[in-house]
Amino acid sequence: MLVTLEGLDGSGKTTVWEAVQERYPDAVFTREPTNDSWYGDAVYRSIRDDDADSLAELFLYTADHADHLTRKIEPALERGDLVISDRYSDSRFAYQGATLDAYDRLAVDDPLEYVVDVHEPFTIAPDLTLYLDVDPETAAERAGATNKFERVDYLESVHDNYERLLERDPERFVRIDATQEPEAVLETVENALADVIGDDY
Ligand SMILES: Nc1ncnc2c1ncn2[C@@H]1O[C@H](COP(=O)(O)OP(=O)(O)O)[C@@H](O)[C@H]1O
Ligand SMILES: Cc1cn([C@H]2C[C@H](O)[C@@H](COP(=O)(O)OP(=O)(O)O)O2)c(=O)[nH]c1=O
């Protein structure tokens, strides 16, 4: 089973992802951008570049995703493992959907749908996505605005895109109120996981 954690920068995904490792010690814990391949290195290089081309960046992230699927996700799912990923395809749909809105040469009406379509032929859809919902102001404050994506106005567009994704796919997403205290967020997450996973892992 594939579970993904999504949300704005600073929503608390990594905090939850680390805490959940104690509850599911046999699961495969992974993340995007990956931090164990040169594709991931290339993505982080691009994140640090304020002048990076947004379309090139979409394909860097997507290359990292393709490699992640082949190298880690697919083999783990074939073994029957539980996989929990801190960010996954929805991050591309929400974030690159937002950056590409301002990309004049991309002749598409709806960048979010375009990014979804790019993934469609090869990706593996998550069984469950926990969306840690915080307002863009709290997110930017918690994240500390350390990179170009962590500005409130940009995070507002990303937040709008996540809302669209939840609307498109209400069965897959569980919305978690991530403005709660960390202990309450973790409890809500563990209950949501137990509801779907049951005693299988
Ligand atoms: N529920 C919470 N309430 C307040 N602060 C939090 C909460 N969850 C995480 N934080 C803090 O916010 C910052 C970002 O958390 P992190 O888990 O790294 O978020 P993300 O991985 O989504 O960017 C960290 O300093 C973390 O300690
Ligand atoms: C996976 C992914 C991340 N991102 C962005 C979100 C983050 O600002 C940045 C790095 O992701 P990450 O290291 O997960 O940051 P954080 O822990 O603060 O949430 O990359 C995208 O724009 N598209 C993507 O597909």
From TrEMBL:
<dbReference type="GO" id="GO:0004798">
    <property type="term" value="F:dTMP kinase activity"/>
</dbReference>
<keyword id="KW-0808">Transferase</keyword>
<dbReference type="GO" id="GO:0005737">
    <property type="term" value="C:cytoplasm"/>
</dbReference>
<keyword id="KW-0418">Kinase</keyword>
<feature type="binding site">
    <location>
        <begin position="7"/>
        <end position="14"/>
    </location>
    <ligand>
        <name>ATP</name>
    </ligand>
</feature>
<feature type="domain" description="Thymidylate kinase-like">
    <location>
        <begin position="5"/>
        <end position="187"/>
    </location>
</feature>
<protein>
    <recommendedName>
        <fullName>Probable thymidylate kinase</fullName>
        <ecNumber>2.7.4.9</ecNumber>
    </recommendedName>
</protein>
<keyword id="KW-0545">Nucleotide biosynthesis</keyword>
<dbReference type="InterPro" id="IPR027417">
    <property type="entry name" value="P-loop_NTPase"/>
</dbReference>
<comment type="similarity">
    <text>Belongs to the thymidylate kinase family.</text>
</comment>
<keyword id="KW-0547">Nucleotide-binding</keyword>
<dbReference type="Pfam" id="PF02223">
    <property type="entry name" value="Thymidylate_kin"/>
</dbReference>
<keyword id="KW-0067">ATP-binding</keyword>
<dbReference type="GO" id="GO:0006233">
    <property type="term" value="P:dTDP biosynthetic process"/>
</dbReference>
<dbReference type="GO" id="GO:0006227">
    <property type="term" value="P:dUDP biosynthetic process"/>
</dbReference>
<dbReference type="GO" id="GO:0005524">
    <property type="term" value="F:ATP binding"/>
</dbReference>
<dbReference type="InterPro" id="IPR018094">
    <property type="entry name" value="Thymidylate_kinase"/>
</dbReference>
<dbReference type="InterPro" id="IPR039430">
    <property type="entry name" value="Thymidylate_kin-like_dom"/>
</dbReference>
<dbReference type="GO" id="GO:0006235">
    <property type="term" value="P:dTTP biosynthetic process"/>
</dbReference>
